[in-house]
Amino acid sequence: MNIFRFLGDMSHILSFLLLLHKIVGGKSAAGISLRTAEMYAIVFCTRYIDLLWNFASLYNYLLKLLFIGASLTIVYFMRYGPSQKATYNADEDAFPVQYLIAPCAVLGVLINQDHSSPFEMVWAFSIYLEAVAILPQLFLLQKQGEVENLTSHYVFALGAYRALYLLNWMFRFMTEPDYQQRIVWLSGLVQTALYCDFFYHYYQSKKGGLNKSVKLP
Amino acid sequence: PEEEEEKDEL
Lengths: 217, 10
Prior knowledge:
- The structure holds two protein chains of two kinds.
- By secondary structure, chain A is mostly helical.
- Chain A is 71% helix and 2% strand.
- By secondary structure, chain B is low in regular secondary structure.
- The N and C termini of chain B lie far apart (22 Å).
- In chain B, 0% of the residues are buried.
- The chains are: A mainly alpha, B little secondary structure.
């Protein structure tokens, strides 16, 4: 464990707390993509299936449970919460996720760390899917133009988590002799790159004060 | 295929 990875995990937890605060606390799903929320639930339920046999550390174990629980809770409230359904904009949340899930599934089968292990295929699928899972959310924000304050912090924290993981991988690559995770590194790079435009606009709007809403052209 | 790395990250 290094500081970059720890901060990355804390940023990831923060993104969940912000989203849960908005959807469960604020009873509003305005500006939130259910498609992204569902893809994240798939990412965690597939990647953390090793909860059943892998106890790398208590820290990992607890956070895996937290991420699966939080992502399923968010999907549940967005699908069945009366006031969440009323504020969720299904027409605008229209990114064709089948064009993301299918290629990731093919890639997961073709490119993974052990072609004889179904778990490795599923695990690689979840890594690839996470890289593109934010697209429906960014697509929705782009369509709406204006990003509500809490939503902008949620997206920022979610983007920052993987950016911090990139620093964590660089640190581990420099300090651990034979450490390499090409699948995760490349996917994490793509994932963070997708946020660059949002990061830019987030920075532009927040430097005038944290409560200004983010405007996307 | 790459040798299997332990999955010690989230």
